[in-house]
Amino acid sequence: MNNPLCRITDLSVGYRDRTALTGLSLDIFSGERLAIVGESGSGKSTLARTLAGLLPDDAVFAGDIRWSSGQTPSLGRDLGFVFQDTSASLNPVLKIGEQVAEGAKRHLRMTWQAAYAHARNLLEHVRIPNPEAVMNAYPHQLSGGQRQRVAIAAAIASRPSILIADEATSALDTVVQAQIVALLDTLVSEAAMTMIFITHDIALASHLADRIAVFKDGRLVEIGPAADILSSPKDEYTKSLIEGHYDLASTPLISAGRRP
Amino acid sequence: MTLLSVENLRRRYVSTGRDIVAVENATFSIAAGETLGIAGASGSGKSTMARLLLGLMPPDAGKITFEGQDWLSLKGKDLRRQRSRMQMVFQDVLGAFHPTATVGETIGDPIRVHRTVPKPQRTREIARLLERVGLSSDFAGRPVYELSGGQRQRVAIARAIATRPSLVVLDEAVSALDVQVRNRILELLVELQREENMSYLFISHDLAVLRAVSHRLAIMDAGRIVETGHTSDIIEQPQSAAGRALVAATLRLMPGGRQTNTIQQSEPTYDI
What we know:
By secondary structure, chain A is α/β, with parallel strands linked by helices. Chain A has a domain at 89-159. Chain A is built from ten helices and nine strands. Chain A is globular and about 55 Å long. In chain B, helix 4 (103-114) crosses helix 5 and helix 6 packs parallel to helix 7 (179-196). Chain B is an alpha/beta fold. Helix content of chain B is 35%, strand content 26%. At the A-B interface, helix 6, helix 7, helix 8, helix 9 and helix 10 of A face helix 7, helix 8, helix 9 and helix 10 of B.
């Protein structure tokens, strides 16, 4: 493979009361879709926050993160971030148009007028119906799925080359989740962005990722091409995640559809 | 034997000046020992249905018959006695429990209120219930906030079965749990049902979870039950648009990765 976009060497991150990541070494390649899969407490969100420069001030950090550009990508300009909870990414008292235009104005040095036109196009691009009306709406007036579309539009407003999605669909119901996953899929392909997709759902990772990294208790358990990890996992924990997944083809726990 | 029957249940809200139908004309029944899964998207009325059944909110119209009694007209002592027969498990266990209460107090509370077990035997009963849900009796003295998500949900189940209910309403009860923990809880629920012959009303947006535990399914959409039937019939051939959307959106694990990707999506709905 080419030189990595980002090389992480022996990274450890701790918070006041606990260690979140231990001895992580990992390469991220330009244009790839890397899924970070793990359960609660695995350290997957800490990695996302470390890359985005979003760690709290009192976090303890050791190890090395080296970007090929020689400098850390700037959040909001080179790197877009989509959170699980849109209240973390959207300001409740700003109109949608203003929030989406703001990134474009600041980082693409557009006039407000140009930035507003850009924002309107972005809303259309993330398939918000009737974008003119939504430009003037506040976040609480939208459904959870529409808010996440707006948060995605805001995250890509400055045309970043890297997009980090941290459990971006976990708070949504399955129907809306499928729509948002399809949207991310399209946007990342169109703009050839590098995507780092953090999820607890290995099935979701199987639909989106080129490579999958499995995390457990703050450590990298296994990493490789998605097809290898999914069809021939080496680690017992990865196997248990795959076997534990329920879908519409799994064996039911009861005699299916029969009256007791 | 029919345990619960619901006829033409209706509930509306007024929200920011708009009249919102939460549940409209809902009719269904649950047999003894049966699990009815209720599936639907966010805002389809699933949780309002749970609240109506549990008496946490009154319906505008309709009839609920539970264990042969007119559930909505019960009062006083009759209501209190009958109340112990229908219990609940919610998603947010910390929100449902007093955070600094011990596990023993949390489980013992319904026993005390409903006086199902004489006082001298309560400690032993709490230990029995803990064991029933796979926790050691040492847990009785621990505060609820110290427990993991899975342990808290086991405590919620122990509390729910403490009064020996015939029906337990589970509203997104496993949605916040990690996969392994979730699967153990689902297995526990199925085992308890078999042994105690309880019925479950199992509410979830996750059709794969519902399929694992439900004998029958009801699909809700915009406050209405648009489809009911045996689980395998609905999964294999959903008749309603909402049923088809739920089936299509349930992600399969693709062993070959995204090259074999078949994400299904319907057009977004407009709601401003």
